[in-house]
Design a protein that fits this description.
about 50% helix, alpha/beta
């Protein structure tokens, strides 16, 4: 199987980055004080040379990860042992735990981190650089994680569970798995994928463990470590910051200053200040923790807790305190010897608000990297692009603009001269009538309007006939756009990895890693064989 040489589309053409993200990637001076540095090879080198991470944290991270893999009956990647060494650092990506990995861009984040690790290992052979995937297992947006889309349809896991999605049991997932495997039946790697999904989504696992199992199969050979921070030991290590926040709420005060700064600059803040930076995890719930004067209340639950009571809870059961979007990144960087974090556009926008929060807690702020984007193009689609003399940048324009430009290139009956001549004769006739007979003024105006409408109607009929003649071209452009923007959504934000893996197996992952260029911010075009 031959994979064509990949090509790229500049970020200035593809337009996938807008607003805050666009300006950040163009190194606007406004962001200089809000970050550690703009991403570059030199900035990464400087970060590696100055990064420190204590042995106690390394050991705790190592033991927690080893335990998490053991609970899934998985042998950890060899990179786990490297974490104990002081010359080992991590590159992180993360995402909420979607069933069957959700949209493609979750995989693209991981691929970006792997590609950067491989590049940095070449540049700094004396260092170990390990990719880590942060499993956002505490998110509670069930509707966002229970469906996948491919082959033109949605497949839904019909579960009614609530709370932290990583804790969801898999008792009701078999119909979902059956739907998927039936849909890819007959593909070259369908059986391999069926075995993987069956292994991952066994009843003994929860969604977090199932996701780890799939990612381990796909990426363990690249050294990817999957970290689930919904963990008593890890939360206990974070307890001093939890208590500091419960007492002072300093993160929310610093966050508000950043929000004001952003809005004054004309940017929209992706997150807003809250009463506290925490949710409370219960068996099947994740409920916001609010302040009521000097006390605390769990939203939707009876009872009020004093500061001393809530502090005691954090000491006894730190695992029930779930950081919200403003503290979750702080928790991540507190636990990891991390030098850079890969973000999607919206993630990047809220990370840019958070450096003052990190500074307040004396936690190192990582370099913020934009993840790679890819566009999968099938041979049939490439053929249609060539037949219609389209350029790849055309695909990021409005479809109607592209179709109209194509039709203008095709010969079409032009009646403009005839229209002008008819208008001239008709106006001459009306002028003669008005000159020779009284009462024709109003009649002339009405007839003139009717005449113009009739000519316009004829012109529209010609345009429709012209489109019908070239209907095949229009339909081909429609189908190209549908592949790039299925259901009107950019491919990577809706399409799932399953049809590609069923067709190409591990070669699909290898090609993504080989094609990634995480410092360029260009769009990677993948010409599927």
């Amino acid at each position: 199987m031959h994979w064509a040489e990949h090509t790229k589309v500049s970020k200035d053409i593809h337009g996938l980055y807008q607003g805050t993200c666009h300006d950040y990637l163009n190194t606007e001076a406004f962001f200089s004080d809000l970050i550690a540095d703009f991403p570059s090879l030199n900035a990464l080198k400087k970060k590696i040379n100055h990064k420190t991470f204590c042995d106690q944290k390394r050991q705790r991270l190592y033991l927690s990860l080893r335990k998490q893999y053991a609970l899934c009956d998985l042998t950890p990647p060899k990179s786990l042992e490297l974490l104990k060494n002081s010359n080992t650092f991590t590159i992180c990506s993360g995402h909420q735990l979607c069933v069957a990995l959700g949209p493609l861009y979750m995989i693209y984040k991981i691929v970006s981190s792997i590609a950067l690790c491989e590049k940095l290992k070449e540049e700094f052979p004396e260092k170990n650089i390990v990719p880590v995937f942060w499993m956002a297992s505490e998110d509670h947006d069930r509707d966002e994680i229970q469906s996948v889309y491919f082959n033109g349809q949605y497949f839904k896991w019909n579960t009614q569970q609530e709370g932290a999605v990583g804790r969801f049991n898999l008792n009701d997932i078999n119909p979902f798995i059956t739907q998927i495997t039936e849909n890819i039946s007959g593909q070259p790697f369908a059986e391999d994928l069926k075995k993987l999904l069956t292994k991952a989504y066994r009843k003994e696992n929860n969604l977090s463990q199932a996701t780890r199992t799939i990612l381990h199969e796909l990426f363990a050979s690249y050294g990817l470590l999957c970290l689930d921070a919904d963990d008593h030991t890890l939360k206990d290590s974070f307890c001093s910051i939890i208590q500091d926040e419960l007492t002072s709420n300093k993160s929310q005060e610093y966050l508000q200053k950043s929000i004001t700064l952003f809005e004054n600059q004309g940017y929209k803040a992706q997150i807003q200040k809250k009463d506290t930076g925490f949710f409370i995890l219960q068996k099947n719930k994740r409920l916001r923790l609010d302040r009521e004067n000097q006390d605390f209340k769990i939203k939707g639950q009876p009872g009020i807790f004093s500061l001393s009571e809530i502090i005691k809870q954090s000491q006894k059961n730190p695992e029930i305190f779930s950081p919200n979007v403003s503290l979750r990144p702080l928790y991540q960087e507190f636990l990891l010897p991390n030098i850079a974090t890969f973000c999607g556009p919206s993630e990047l926008s809220y990370w840019l608000l958070l450096k003052p929060v990190f500074d307040a807690h004396k936690v190192d702020f990582p370099l913020l990297m934009a993840r790679d984007s890819f566009l999968m193009l099938r041979p049939k689609t490439i053929s249609k692009i060539k037949k219609n003399t389209l350029n790849i940048p055309d695909l990021f324009q409005d479809k109607d603009v592209v179709i109209n430009a194509l039709l203008k290139q095709k010969p079409k009956l032009n009646i403009q001269k005839d229209k002008d001549a008819l208008h001239l004769k008709f106006n001459t006739l009306l002028s003669s009538l008005k000159k020779n007979y009284q009462g024709f003024e109003q009649f002339s105006q009405a007839e003139k309007k009717k005449f113009a409408n009739q000519l316009n109607y004829i012109e529209k009929k010609i345009e429709k006939a012209h489109r019908n003649i070239h209907r095949q071209h229009i339909e081909q452009i429609d189908s190209v756009y549908h592949e790039v923007f299925p259901n009107g959504v950019f491919q990577e934000r809706i399409q799932n990895f399953i049809p590609y893996y069923a067709l190409y197996g591990d070669a699909f992952i290898k090609h993504l890693v080989a094609s990634a260029a995480p410092l360029s911010n260009d769009l990677n075009l993948v010409y599927l064989p």
